[in-house]
Amino acid sequence: MKKILLFALVFLTLLSFKTLVDNDFIISGNTAGIENGKKVLLQKQDEIKGIVTIDSVLIADGKFSFKGTTLEPSIHFIQVEKSEGKVAFILENGKIGIDFYKDSIAKSKIYGTSNNDDFYSFNKSAEKVQSKMMAFQQANTQKMNDAQAAKDTIVVNGLMKEFNQFQDEIIGLTVGFPETHPKSFLSILFVDNMFNMPNADIEKIKIAYNKLDLTVKNTKVGKAVLHILENPLENPDNSYYIGK
After folding, report:
1. Contact criterion met (CB below 8 Å) for 79 and 87
2. Is the pLDDT of residue 1 over 60?
3. Same domain, 83 and 137
4. What is the residue range of 46's domain?
5. Could you tell me if 49 and 79 are in contact, meaning their C-beta atoms sit under 8 angstroms apart?
6. 52 and 37: one domain?
7. What is the CATH number of the domain that holds 55?
8. Which of 83, 112, 141 is the last residue of a domain?
9. CA dihedral (68, 73, 76, 78) positive or negative
10. Contact 118/184 with Cβ under 8 angstroms?
11. Tens of pLDDT along 16-50?
């Protein structure tokens, strides 16, 4: 009887610990090269106030950490004081790692939870396209300037067509992501963003939304997307294109 009772107590202790882990977040950051004592800010986007700071800690031994709990995933930011750049990540319960690179903030690494692994992987894919876009711009800036000065619309239009292909490639990454990642929080963000695209097709948005996992649909963003889909006439400029 005592063995059974002891087993039950151990089981309840483990269960309580698991519940604690599952319902809390721990952000562990590395800031190699940044002096100790500098403040690290945890920020979020407020609908009225813009970017606001919700917590702060000091760097110690090249590291920092935040602990807390959140009801659902949401985009947040990490910024070191007096630093212009921010690292965007998805705040969610679990262990999140951030390697903050002071000399190249855009290349900072986020990892540890499934949504942040998805976020980092997507950003790396997008960076490849952006690199090609920047290389194209550098190689053709003078050619574009000369064509504009000469009012050579054929050359101007040709260059713009080539440049737009990179933009289409980025859009393709975002539009295709939800279908291959139905459980990712990033997917509902991309579905929501589809409303802002030129000639947004609400029927295609519905298809993308319907393929998402219920856990994603039940987020604040997911519910907002569903509301728009169910009430398209509330769109102030009625700009949604209804696909045939």
Report:
1. yes
2. no
3. no
4. 2-112
5. no
6. yes
7. 2.60.40
8. 112
9. positive
10. yes
11. 334 344 568 999 999 877 889 999 999 998 888 88
